[in-house]
From TrEMBL, chain A:
Signal peptide: none annotated. Belongs to the MET18/MMS19 family. Its main location: nucleus. This is MMS19 nucleotide excision repair protein. Key component of the cytosolic iron-sulfur protein assembly (CIA) complex, a multiprotein complex that mediates the incorporation of iron-sulfur cluster into apoproteins specifically involved in DNA metabolism and genomic integrity. In the CIA complex, MMS19 acts as an adapter between early-acting CIA components and a subset of cellular target iron-sulfur proteins. Pfam families: MMS19_C (PF12460), MMS19_N (PF14500).
Automatic annotation (TrEMBL), chain B:
Keywords: Chromosome partition. Belongs to the MIP18 family. Residues 38-102 form the MIP18 family-like domain. This is MIP18 family-like domain-containing protein. It comes from the Eukaryota. It holds the Pfam family FeS_assembly_P. It comes from Olea europaea subsp. europaea. GO terms for biological process: chromosome segregation; protein maturation.
Amino acid sequence: MADPTQWVKHVELYVNSSSTAAQQEASVDAIANLLKNDLLTLEALVREMEMYLTTTDSIIRSRGILLLAELLTQLRSKRLNDASIESLIGFFTERLADWKALRGAIVGCLSLLRRKSHVGVVTDDKVKAVVQSYLQNLQVQSLGQHDRKLCFQLMECLLDRYPAAVRDLGDNLIYGICEAIDGERDPQCLMLSFRIVEILAGLFPGPSGPLADFAGDLFGILGCYFPIHFTHPKEEDVDVKREELSRALMLTYASTPLFAPFSIPLLLEKLSSSLPLTKVESFKYLSYCTSKYGVDRMAEHFETLWSSVKDATYVSPQTNLSTEVGFMSEMGFQDSDIMKQAFVLLQELVQQSNGSFISLILDDEDIKIFMNSLNQYEDFDNIPIDIRQRLHAVGRIISVCVNTSIASCNKVFESFFPLLMTYLGLSVAEPHENSCLAEDYNPPGRLNFGALYLCVEVLSACRYLVGSDELTPIPDFANQTWCVMLHNVSKSLATVFVSLLRSNVAENSQNAYICYGVKGLQNLAMFPGSLLAVSKSTYDSILLKLMSVVTSDINKTFLWTLAMNALVEIGSFLDKCPDSERLSSYESIVVEKIFSLISSDDLTMPVSLKLQAAFEIGATGINFMLRVVEGLDEAISATLSAVYAHGNRKSVEPTIKLLEYYSNKVLPWFHKSGGSEEIPLNFALSIWDKIENNRSFNLDSLENELLDATMMAMKQAVGSCSEGSQEKIINKALGVLLSSNCLEWMKSISGNTQSEVEGLQQIHKLDSFAIRDEWITSLIASIVIALCPQTYIQNGKFILQFFITTLLNGHVPSAQALGSLVNKLPLKITGTPLSKNLCLDEAVDMIFHSCIWTSYNGSTYERGSSEIDLSSLRLCSLSPESDKIHATIGLAWIGKGLLMRGHEKVKDITMTLLNCMISDGDRGSLPNSKHPSLVCNDEDLHHQLMKSAADAFHIIMSDSESCLNKRYHATIRPLYKQRFSNTVMPILSTLMLKYDSPSIRSMLCRAIAYVVSDTPLTAILSEAKKLIPLLLDCLSMMVEDITNKEIIYSVLLVISGILVDKNGQDAVAENAHSIVNQLIELTTYPHMMVIRETAVQCLVAVSELPHTRIYPLRTQVLRAMLKALDDPKWVVRQEAVRCRQAWASIASRSLHF
Amino acid sequence: MVSGLINANPIVYGKKDHRARTAPVQVDEYAAEPIDQQEIFDHIRDIKDPEHPYSLEDLKVITEDAIEVDDKKSRVRVTFTPTVEHCSMATVIGLCLRVKLIRCLPRRYKVDIRVAPGTHATEAAVNKQLNDKERLAAALENPNLVDMVDECLVPSYE
């Protein structure tokens, strides 16, 4: 047992009105813990607290009771014995009368009543006592907001948890609730009171129960809340939204049919309000009430309801003409919210009423007159806008009736369909062979647009009815009246629609006809075949027509797009509801046509359109796509052979397009839809077949675009294959490689170390390998780039050696492939070690000790055995500088690969690159026996070498699209950029201090800029103090050269990142002066607008720094801004205005004008 | 200063959307974009009316058409329309316009502010006052007036 002195002080703290809320909370927690752990019993506590609970000082008493109540709330899940519960609830019930200390009593009752049954609950008798005391003592509306809320919570809890106990109270209870909620205004309390009425209505459902007598009074209280409308636009009670409150009220209205006599008239009356919101709400409430009250209650209001719906939709419709392009002359109306809700109500009424409501609509005089008057508006252009709106409304009303139920659909067909058909010149009677319209039927004059529109609307509503019905068992549609009628006319109807598409005039007014012609065809084609509504021959002719549009009407963009969309819709419908007969028709007519379209080299249809059509149709179903891809494969293979074998320049362009489509659309689609990897595998293999079979390439080396597209497709294809397939592809490729000429000169290098220098020369003299060899090399590189880490590469060493050789020829993809190789190779070979297998360490050794880097081993640099001694290459007069440039690029990619997997050897590569950059200094001491003019050229080359070494840092740090990314399965260690930057930046900055030569310094700057701009900002911020001076040096060094603008921009972005960050600002403050000077210089940088813009923005950020630092700079900045205000570009001027204001306002208000 | 509002209940017309400057896809880095009507209008549209919490655009005191610019000759003329004829705030509005434009335009510009003909009782006097250098300088030495102007200009910088 806890020592009383220990916890009594908590009680005192709580009761003391001068202690803070946090202290009080803590003391409640402390006592509750004692109680929970049985260190203190409830009895002991109550006994000890007696004084606080019964004192005549109402403040202390109320605090005391509240403490007890709060403690009980905390103990909600602790079991208490019945006796204590009984005495406690008795106490709180009695205290309800004590209005001065009410809150504690309510909280106490609530927490006791909310207890779960397994921890002890209040008995029904006691509950009854609580309710009686509640009704007798509480004057809810005279309490404050929080207390009212608690009161309502208590009542809700009583009704919800103890319905049996409270039900007996009958009239008293209802009366009490009426009194409690009358006049409530607070949103939170209203939510609760609505809920209370809702539960109450569930408690007394009978028409003769106590609620029946009070329904009028109760609704009198609720009625005045409709519609919920917040007068204060700024919602102060963010916790209760208008929508929530409105929904709660709606549930209350619909909670019992007893409210119907009061609520329906009210809602109907509110429909005439001028406030749009009220109308929307009324329709919403009416629909909901209709579904809840049942049809009997609503029947008497049917006529009023219909007239109000008609009023909102037909008589004074509120539609907006949709502004979408392409619908200008079409019926592109968008329903307002009112209309939408009215249609929802209409649907609900039709559904509930079992036919009585629908006849009201069908017999409506206005609608009838309108239908009969359709003849007046034959030509679309002559239909005035208000009639179009009416047409739209009638269309919507009819389609709502049609798609609600089969019975209503039949009725609509019976009364309207024959009329519509007559307008279109058709008859719904049983068709005779000779009464069918001829295939090339042309409508006499203009077709009745109104009838056409309604007809299409009805068709799409029917389709919706058929499609959406989740009725089980599926009703026998085929024998329904509407279906029979439709069956009789479908063929002629299709003919009419087709005739609309045939019109030769491409004028604007035709668009509406064309649009509805296509829509009609699409709807006809999307009835399930089992329905028998549309025969197979009709279906086929529809598809044929649409297909002929797609293949021949390429110039009519509008029609073409519509037809294409229709075909896609039909296709995806088939994919959803497969139907063997329809499927075979679709395949033979549409898919096969598309297939022959792509595989033929018929150029009447542009390739891009062909491909678009092919892909869109294919995307509707996997089987279609497979077929389409087959066509694509054939096309690619045909054009590739044309290019390879005959050097057909004309085929190059389409081939590139085909390949791009393949890699951008088709392969990602398969990847997304989880399709088989057969497709990419076969694609890759077939390309290799092509290359294998064409021994000589009849190509200009200029066709680089084609090679790029092929490489891209190859990478994509390989990347989406599994390891097994990747192995197949690489083996195939190796086979081709081994049988090619590439091997001839490979042998001369890899075999003999003595003749390596000569070998090197030899490659170089070859100028470039034959075009076919270049293709093979590039494509193998693409494969290697996209391989998975797990893929086993046969003959790995050979490939490695091969790439090293080609790399020195300036082949960048080889360098990327090497990078990918070292990035993904396994650390160790498991299983039987074969001499030809490759693991990482071995590969790295091979690369580092490869003959190319170490042509002279007696070098002066002795840093470590494994370091690549590129610098020694300099001594080798036989190897030209350009080779070293290529080698540097290779090193960059290899370094990137190693860095991304976190391999330590990347350090050696970095050191080599750094040495390369600073090699200028000792250059003068070299023995130089060359002719002066050669030296000059050499000087230039050497500069380029240094530059490429600096650019290597760009390669290492930046993300690449073409290799070493997620898509190509690269191994990526998290935070690798950060790690690299952390190691290399200190080295670079010390080198900056060490060297004075401007050329070296500019290279170092370049490297620093690259590293910094790709480092995550968080890593830079911690180093900001050291980095800022460096970055400023970089900027001042690089502004001279116009080619550096991109780098300058990225450095500037880093600086602006530092400037806007809180931590960065502290670091910046010391250097404010030099930063501002540099930024001011950049505000006049002539070659790139974004640099000027960003510089000005940075100056704005600088103005946020502490006054003491920046005040002296003020005049300088303002003067610069005067210049920036006259910048040739608008954006910069705009920023200059902001900047000027920012700087002017940090000082006195006297701006100098 | 003024006991009651001069125009207690002005008509609020609402504002146009800020027209977004659409950059062409391939921008010529070196092509100049001369200062035009829209740019000037963007500078002054959000200036607050001295009396009401509405912008000058809201009240149609200024419109885009009432601005004449000649970038080559470095001239700009803004013609504004006071909401009521006897509006004593006309000079303050004119002052705001001038101060804002001086702050936003390059120094080479000559700014000319005028009341639209026939919209103000003492049109000539106001025009003279607004374009008189000496009086302008004097007005900006008056701290009360400068505070007032600065307050009106605050929304135009956002």
